[in-house]
Specification:
Layout: H1 6-57, E1 67-68, E2 76-77, E3 91-92, H2 97-102, E4 116-119, E5 122-125, E6 128-131, E7 134-140, E8 152-159, E9 162-168
Antiparallel strand pairs: 1-6, 2-3, 4-5, 6-7, 7-9, 8-9
Amino acid sequence: MRGFTIVELLIVIVVIAILAAITVVAYNGIQERSRNTQTIQAATEYAKALQAYKAINGAYPAPGGWTCIAGASTKCGNMTDTTSACFTVAQYSGSSPLDTQIKTVIQNLPQPSTQQIPCATGHLYGGVMYGWSWVLWYLSGTQSCTNLGGLVNITTNYSGNVTQCYGTLP
């Protein structure tokens, strides 16, 4: 009986390695899209909740600055300008009075992804932020910021592997 030659075995190993590499890349892309979708859905729910809050109370909550609105266990990043190598300038965590105000119109706070988005000078925590009738969220990769939750004036900023989206509440 004849066995396999070393060349045949090497060809099989190379083919298996190529298939494994393709699978890993595809899997990572699926994870990134899933985390981005989770953040977009949370931003949509927060925009709707803030609009409901205004309908009931006559005004949007006063945030007192940019506030992470993702509950006590989530961190958010902020930026100073669009030329920064990494958007992470300040990180916010912990429950805020805004969380309590939003809970008057929705029972459970939507949870954006807790992804850490790598960028040139470290990483940025994805999340949803609110400030002065603006809703802001971060996505991994170069993404399109679409109109969600009735927000207007949607703006997109890119820096490396980070997309910053924000829009104004009507």
